[in-house]
Amino acid sequence: MLSTSAIALLAIGIIVVLITPGPTNTLLAAAGLRQGVRRSLPLIAAELAGYLLSISVWGHFLAQAAHALPWLPSLLRVAAGVYIAYLAVDMWRAAVALPDSTQRASGMRTLFVATLLNPKGLLFAGTIFPAVAFAHLPAYGTAMLMFACLLVPIALAWIAFGAALGSGKLTWLNPVKMQRGASIVLGVFSLSLAWAALH
Fold first, then answer.
1. Which residue in 30, 43, 95, 186 has the fewest CB atoms around it within 10 Å?
2. Is the pTM of this model over 0.90?
3. pLDDT tens sequence across 98-110
């Protein structure tokens, strides 16, 4: 089973990565913008399925590869830290734009594939989830249950955010400040990953 500290770190990592703007979250917000919260709710199941498959495949592959290449987990943590730092800089420099509301809404398959191919799946499997989650079934079940419980409200928040933008309720929102705040959170998280990998 996972220790209390491992569960706490897992929860923090999941939340930080899931709230970060990316292809899946942009599609969720765009769906909320175009078709409202209620009609967009099934997309949460597509996101969850895409992440569960991606994380499981990457996690089991990396667990097997780590036996032959014991340095691989540390290298992945450093690479993940660099990738998140890149995302932080990229988010700081460019505003997140949602697709135009006149475009056709994304379907379940589009969101599933976007999530399946999202680099966050590798990030979750290689650095956020503890290695024990892919070695022991009870730990895997605990980690995935926690992931699902955190994903649902965060995905719903992205859909609701898009719907609020579409209704004109967020005219006060400054996307640049919001994005820069998120980029600072990502920057701190990337430093913590690098620190963990090197110590």
1. 95
2. no
3. 554 444 556 889 8
Dump the DSSP string for 24-80: HHHHHHHHHHHHHHHHHTHHHHHHHHHHHHHHHHHHHHHHHHHHH-TTHHHHHHHHH
What type of residue is 111? L
Q: Which residues contact 106 (CB under 8 A, 6 or more apart)?
A: 27, 30, 31, 43, 114
- Answer for the pair 72, 122: CB distance below 8 angstroms, yes or no: no
Q: How far apart are CA 183 and CA 117, in angstroms?
A: 22
Q: Looking at residue 89, what is its pLDDT?
A: 76
The alpha carbon dihedral of 133, 191, 65, 149 has a sign of: positive
